[in-house]
Amino acid sequence: MKKLLLFLALTITTLSFAQTTYTVNNETLVLNTEVEGDFDLLWNTFDGKFRYFIKNKEEQLTELTNTKGSNNKYDNMYQTTLETLCNTDASKVKLTLYSLKNFINKSNAASDPNYTFNNSQPKLKTRLGIFGGLTNHPFITNPNNKTVPLFGAELELFQDNLIPKHAGFLNIRTTGDTDDFNYSATQIALGYRFRFINTSKFNIYAQTKFATFTASKTAYIIEDSVDPGTFYKEEKSSTSFDIPLTFGIGADFKIGNGFITFVYDNLFAALQDTADNFPLDFALGYKFNL
């Protein structure tokens, strides 16, 4: 069952981040399309570095490069490439997504009078959410598979689009304990989510938590060695910082000025071992636009 869950989660995650594959100079690359028109702007990150490409009407891709020479200065070759392709002065263009996007939009508008675009710099907007749910702590040893309540709050950040696909989030959640499972924790997490089904009224997303800070407390029942038959409780507190890359899925339903949100979290982790129990970690809440 765990293998099936892992397979389904990986499939969902792969589909959610699906992009277009291109072959450039015998190199196979998966690229995002940022601008579409007579000239398309494509990009992605590889080994932590941004790479940008221009596709013309003939579907030919040209990479924009900026190589540092022996004099330790950049050659700004991307500006020459842009001027050659678009027949427009590119001397003030920076090798950044925002600057390139503005340049390509203006070039498309110059070649196509029906082309329209918005060149305003995107602004960050936020949503604040509260939620509650249940968890069996999928990454903690839980012999009797006990579930405990969880409560939390979240701040979601996204670009000022009508229907944002990408979002970052910061959330904090705390879990209680039970008589049979004496473990409680408060966790702060940074994460990212991608909405692969995305409409103004409804969306489904995949998400990952890439950094967590957890403060936990575990209680142990210990028999007194001096007075057998007498038991007492001993508590142990600990903190940890992890980069677990945990994955989950969720959905938002627009209601009023916000969204009812459901998240099935902690399905699996790329860098953290799961316990033997089937992952059970879900929350229902509401988030509203600030």
Outline the fold blueprint:
Elements: H1 2-16, E1 20-24, E2 27-35, E3 40-46, E4 49-55, E5 61-64, H2 77-86, H3 97-111, E6 124-135, E7 148-159, E8 166-175, E9 183-198, E10 202-223, E11 231-242, E12 246-255, E13 258-269, E14 281-289
Antiparallel strand pairs: 1-2, 2-3, 3-4, 4-5, 6-7, 6-14, 7-8, 8-9, 9-10, 10-11, 10-12, 12-13, 13-14
What distinguishing features does this structure have?
single chain; 290 residues; mainly beta; Porin; 2 domains; eight-stranded antiparallel beta barrel; five-stranded antiparallel beta sheet; 3 helices; elongated
In short:
This protein is mainly beta and 290 residues long. Helices cover 14% and strands 51% of the residues.
Structural class: mainly beta
Rg, alpha carbons: 25 Å
The best one-word shape is elongated
CATH topology of the largest domain: Porin
Percent strand: over 45%
Helices, by number, come to 3
Tell me how many strands there are.
Answer: 14
Distance between the termini: 41 Å
Strand order of the largest sheet: 6-7-8-9-10-12-13-14
Domain unit count: 2
Provide the succession of SSEs: HEEEEEHHEEEEEEEEE
